[in-house]
Structures are given as C-alpha cells and as structure tokens.
Design a protein that fits this description.
single chain; about 110 residues; alpha+beta; 6-stranded antiparallel β-barrel; 2 helices; about 20% helix; globular
Length: about 110
C-alpha cells in the first residue's frame, strides 16, 4: 500500500513537467508455433505479437527494443507498447506507464 501511495505521489509530481506519450495498445510476444496455431495481430522481424490488456495501475518501466517508429518493448518483459504517435524514446529510457481502460490503453510518462 505504501508503495502504491508513493508511486501515485511520484506520478503526480513528475506529470506536470515530464513528456507524456499516448499508448494505443499493448502487445505480448508469442512463439512462431503459437502464432500458427491461434493467429497473431502484428509481426516485426519474424517475431509475432498478440494484443493484450494490462491491469489498471502505475508501472515503473524501462524502454527496451524499438521494432518500429511506434512499437517499443518494455525491458525485461515480453510486453510491447504501440504508441499513437512516434515518440522520441531511446533504449533504457525510464518512465511510468499509467494504464487505463478508457479509449487509450495508457500513457507513458518519461522520467527526467
């Protein structure tokens, strides 16, 4: 509970100054075998992805691989973010993802 309150306070403090990027959807990477069995939503460099939802909340993350101008990985996970517009992010950039269940899947707020 204390960690959640700290994250909420931290989110409010940095959101006034940090850059925000709208996340259109979240994806998870699947194996080629699973892609052939059940289908897939996106493919990049012979890697297969299906759309997924994350639980509502705040997540501290680092940006991972960039597969497309709008498609970035979340470091140390199999999750990827599809942004509404091309953000200026680099591998290892840190930020907070605010996941909502509204029109957009969420928002990435860069840490300074």
């Amino acid at each position: 509970m204390k960690k959640l309150l700290f994250l909420l306070f931290f989110f409010c403090a940095i959101s006034a100054f940090a850059e925000k990027h709208d996340i259109k959807a979240f994806y998870v990477e699947i194996s080629e075998l699973d892609a052939k069995r059940s289908g897939f939503d996106e493919t990049f460099d012979n890697r297969y992805f299906v759309k997924t939802r994350l639980e509502e909340g705040l997540y501290e993350v680092e940006v991972g691989d960039k597969l497309d101008s709008k498609f970035y990985g979340i470091r140390f996970t199999k999750f990827f973010m599809l942004f509404r517009y091309s953000p200026y992010l680099y591998k290892f950039d840190e930020g907070i993802i605010k996941v909502t269940n509204g029109y957009d899947a969420g928002e990435f707020i860069e840490k300074d």
